[in-house]
Amino acid sequence: xxxLKKILAVAATTSMxxxxxxxxxxxxxxxxxxxxxxxxxxxxxxxxxxxxAAATDALETCTxxxxxxxxxxxxxxxxxxxxxxxVVFGTGAAATQSDAEKRAxxxxxxxxxxxxxxxxx
Length: 121
Description:
The chain is built from three helices and six strands. By secondary structure, it is of the alpha+beta class. It has one domain.
């Protein structure tokens, strides 16, 4: 019984350390109807200490790149992605970059959607 308690204690500690190691990410974009996916302005951040910090940092990064109409579209842990066509956009978050991109394309829902940006913690 004592050995089981030690194993559970180690597992709980490892789990807390692992979850604390992951920060927050955020994506802000300057996009509009008619804008080609290659012309979308954006800011992306990872490793922010909180969801709010990720949101603020993504908006600041987008603006610092010379974009004037930045809007926050996603905060995430692990991986995040933004996809767009000239008329719609989509976002996705997942454990892997590939899955986040697939979710963003599905959320976008247009055959012309392309991944604009994606990243992971």
